[in-house]
Amino acid sequence: MFVQRAIVSNAAGRSKDVAFWQINLFKNVMIYSLPLSAIALVPSVVTLYNDGRVFLVCAAIFTLLSIGLVSLNKKINLGVKKAYVVVMLYVLAITLTATLGAFGIGCVYILALSVFIALLFPRNVAYASIVVNFLIYACFTAIIYFKLFNSPLISHYTMPYWVTYSLNFLFLDVAVIVQIRYLTNGLRGTIEKKAKLLKELRAEITEKIIRNDVLKESEQHYYMLFSLNPSPMWIYDAETLYFLQVNKAAIEHYGYTEDDFLNMTIKDIRPKSVLPDLLNTLQHNRTEKSWHMTTQHRDKYGNDFHVEVRCSTIPFKGREARLVIAQNITEQINHTQAIERQNTKLKEIAFIQSHLVRAPLARIIGLSAVIRQNLDEPVDQQILGFLDTSVNELDQIIRSVVNNSQEIFPEDSLTGQVNNKAGVETSDNDPLPQIQSA
Question: Cβ contacts of residue 211 below 8 Å, gap of 6+?
């Protein structure tokens, strides 16, 4: 764990993209290659020391130790660590090739470096390593061709063989790097696509959570608007007409329990006399989204009352249903009927005043004029009889008007009001004063 934290100490918290896996690959290479290299270095050092190549022994040991120290240093940037490893291995490969004159050992190191760079570095660096490898083998070719200094390569390889080996190696190097980069780019595309899908999925999940929260809030509002509404409300199945849900107000107003409602249809809360109108209304409004009607309902105790019903089509648990709000309007209807009865009585009073009262009153006026014209002569008894008859008729008509007025205003007495204003106390049963003969 210490070695892992030391190598990738400044790469913590990265997302799992290609760079993340490149960092982990570098970590694993260092963890496993450093101990194995130390073990493999022992026989090489012994062989080179016995062969008198002390410089190569020192170079190998220095390379291994410096790579280990730089890789485990937490203060050094990860990019610097990778670059240092590449440079030191390039130097070691060039040194071994130049001093030992062995193409094979240098080729192994350089090919391994090509793979290392293609896997752990960006694309431009990977392709740049091909150019570096070409320049290295071009320099060795110049050394062999021009014999720039005394190198074992000059004695071990002829120019044609060296060129052949170098070209084959460069071809293999290019093929390996291109394939690795192709694989890396495919992996990068897959990871990016996966990251994009994951981001979209998280956004969708977040949106779904928000929608669920809004839905829960809407359900709470629905509960408050439906269950706690003071007006009776219910939901019934559009096909079977069975109640599906009722609120507390419906239970209180109709007297049925919730279980009673759920075993009933909307026909069970109506008098039989209005059932044909109900069926006709349902048939007529079958495709309508909302409508209203005035009808009669019946509670559990057999009491009929007038209601105004407002109905809307809603989905309920996967079925088409109707949401109903019922408002008891019995008092309004009774009040309207009372006003209509009062209007009828007023019309009767108006008719009596305009037609019946005027006839005896006109006769009285005419008889009074005759009497005044014959004041010096004895009054004709027949005229007085006519006058008495007209007065009695007028008295009966006035009593009828008073009675009709009392039906409209039962708490008031029209006769008493009139007499009280005049300062006279009379009774409806008192006869009018009889006119005596002069």
Answer: none
CA-to-CA separations, 170 to 136, 141, 161, in angstroms, rounded: 11, 13, 14
The structural domain count of the chain equals 3
Is 146 part of any domain? yes
In this structure, are 100 and 36 located in the same domain? yes
Q: Please tell me whether residues 341 and 286 are part of one structural domain.
A: no
- Among 301, 328, 355, the domain-final residue is 328
| Nearest C-alpha neighbor of 418 from the set 434, 401, 435 | 401
Whether 164 and 21 share a structural domain? yes
pTM for the whole thing?
Answer: 0.49
Q: Is the pLDDT of residue 397 over 60?
A: yes
Same domain, 289 and 348: no
The neighbouring-strand residues paired with 306 are: 296
Closest CA to 26 of 15, 14, 34: 34
pLDDT 10s digits, 346-371: 777 777 665 666 667 677 777 777 77
Residue 46: which H helix or E strand, with range? Answer: helix 18-50
427 domain-assigned? no
248 and 337 within one domain: no
Residue 366 included in any domain: yes
By CB atoms closer than 10 A (0-12, 13-18, 19+), residue 177 is buried
> What is the distance between the alpha carbons of residues 186 and 159, in angstroms, rounded to a whole number?
40
pLDDT tens profile 257-271: 999 999 999 999 999
List, for residues 250-304, the tens digit of each pLDDT value.
Answer: 999 999 999 999 999 999 999 999 999 999 988 888 888 888 889 999 999 999 9
35 and 152 belong to one structural domain: yes
Give the mean model confidence (pLDDT) for residues 409-431.
43
b/e code 351-381 from CB counts within 10 Å (16+ = b): ebeeebbeebeebbeebeeebeeeeeeebee
Q: Report d(CA 249, CA 244) in Å as an integer.
A: 15
335: three-class secondary structure by DSSP: helix
Structural domain for 351, as ranges:
333-422
- Same domain flag for 358 and 400: yes
The packing angle between helices 159-227 and 18-50, to 10°, is 150
Mean pLDDT of all residues in the chain? Answer: 82
Residues 164 and 63 in one domain: yes
